[in-house]
Amino acid sequence: MSAIPTPYLLYLGAATDFLGLKTARGLATFAPEKCVGEWRHDDCPYSVGLDRVTLDEGVVRGARTLVIGIANPGGRMDARVVADAVAAARAGLNVAAGLHQRLRGEPDLVAAAEAAGVQLFDVRDPPADLPVGNGRPRAGRRLLTVGTDCSVGKMYAALALTRAMQARGHAADFRATGQTGILVAGSGIAIDAVVADFIAGAVETLSPPREDGGWDLIEGQGSLFHPSFAGVSTGLLHGAQADALVLCHEVGRETLRGLSHSRVPGLAECLDANLRAARLTSPDVRAVGVCLNTASLDEAAARAACAAVEGELGLPVTDPYRFGAAPIVAEIERCFAA
Amino acid sequence: MSAIPTPYLLYLGAATDFLGLKTARGLATFAPEKCVGEWRHDDCPYSVGLDRVTLDEGVVRGARTLVIGIANPGGRMDARVVADAVAAARAGLNVAAGLHQRLRGEPDLVAAAEAAGVQLFDVRDPPADLPVGNGRPRAGRRLLTVGTDCSVGKMYAALALTRAMQARGHAADFRATGQTGILVAGSGIAIDAVVADFIAGAVETLSPPREDGGWDLIEGQGSLFHPSFAGVSTGLLHGAQADALVLCHEVGRETLRGLSHSRVPGLAECLDANLRAARLTSPDVRAVGVCLNTASLDEAAARAACAAVEGELGLPVTDPYRFGAAPIVAEIERCFAA
Description:
By secondary structure, the first copy, chain A, is of the alpha/beta class. Chain A has two domains: 8-122, Rossmann fold (3-Layer(aba) Sandwich); 141-335, 3-Layer(aba) Sandwich (Rossmann fold). The first copy, chain A, has twelve helices and 13 strands. Chain A binds chain B through residues 73-75, 100, 132-136, 191-197, 199-201, 224-225, 227-236, 238-239, 258-259, 261-262, 273, 276-277, 280-281, and chain B through 131-136, 191-197, 199-201, 224-225, 227-236, 238-239, 258-259, 261-262, 273, 276-277, 280-281. Chains A, B: This is Putative NAD-dependent epimerase/dehydratase family protein.
């Protein structure tokens, strides 16, 4: 995939599902300098905190690419989204999306892009000729973020840890496994979009051996406890061959995303299951911390929540968005001193 | 995918690789009544034990579909195979194959099929619009075969159990998850070929709720302990929502298929991990038996191997190909009495 031209105009459309704005929120948080604003309709009750602009205003501000920043669990676009993307292409913008439903599968959009001479970027398209995983030990240090559920902050945690590691002078690279991460990082592989036989092999490809003593910080996906997506999480664990795991959890989340009949697992149970599965390809894997998403709490309650989990699990606990990732970086330095 | 018309003419062509005949051998073993014969050239040294017929004789015997029963290591068809498939289409046969290389990717074959009004069945193509899994409890009883490794007899076990259940008067259906099983059953979904996000959903689609008190016997894939494919196995476990698991193992297999550096897990450890993972969507799942592939042993040693595992795990153990599946069916009847 060639590089996606920036800056982006973030498309929220008429989204009414806050969790479905994950891509837009991720970009607004981690790459605001790449975004000229957000384009949303009056029936969208949410903002990601950027300037609200129309399509035309986005063009005037110099946007090069419209990013479809919304997703429902099935990853499909409704007719209005497609129509807006067509309008953007006609206005001279490239269009990027990370949905299962591909932009190139929309004939009207393909025609509009061809007529306008702009490109369509389906960031979920996997690379051709991925290998199956082999599980052989490879050089380099790797950390994987794992979660109690989908959308609990695994990408945020991996990005925050990458930046904190770099700030401490470590060679460290974020490895994106989802559409938002790919748009933030500029490269990566959408693991949930590869053919099932190649999940682990895709992660081995994404995070190849490294000899510089540095770290790959790999973005986790799904949860071993999510009945829809645990296969992806399992292959990711095995392909990552992680030296270190960081468990991510959203405080107050009681039922799994999209599955109100399924309860979020306990943190100790979840961490134990992840360590057990990870040992298949990384026998010495260890947990180095917990990242809590405490957005629902005030600061005192957030600190108390971190302290409570720290007491329960005996690991550094932080909300990386609120309190930074330093405690976990310190634990990594302690556990993996040269 | 609509059902593949039977009977089949099995195509062996000029195959010189015995392992590559797996699909043809599976059909000849489990669905000989669906096969009018085998079509092989003089330079093919192997038979799968059916009558050797020409294309024309196959047509005269009433064949409806030519099944490409061979695969070379690359999963590709050479020019002679394509030419023979074209000849079969012109002779009025549908053509089915489970190769990576798709029949619909061969322009000459597509044209011949269109001209003759016959269909091409790429049995690895997943259905369009698969849902993501939801893990909600659904009606009906389901059994899944799981394994210590790939290619240890999970399809054979599921088919043998289906027939043994039927012979005891139970409503029972085999649910195929791989290409050979799909050709035996006439329908199914090649789970390893679906996009990773949809593994569990594909299995929920393959084995929908049933209200007749009968059983679905679902063919397992891969192994939770195989670093290449455990993601597939995990999604399959969760989508299957199995009431009963049968563990499959090949006696004497010491390292994982394709990964000589990885050891086959112990049976107790493997069964325990499968039960633990399965409980996410089926809390009351239980093991009902073990199927050993004892092809490498003489009969006395095979019986001794079964007895040893029975003593270790406290479950009925059989080689279904050699000794039948009755002990496991009896355990199912005991555990799930109405």
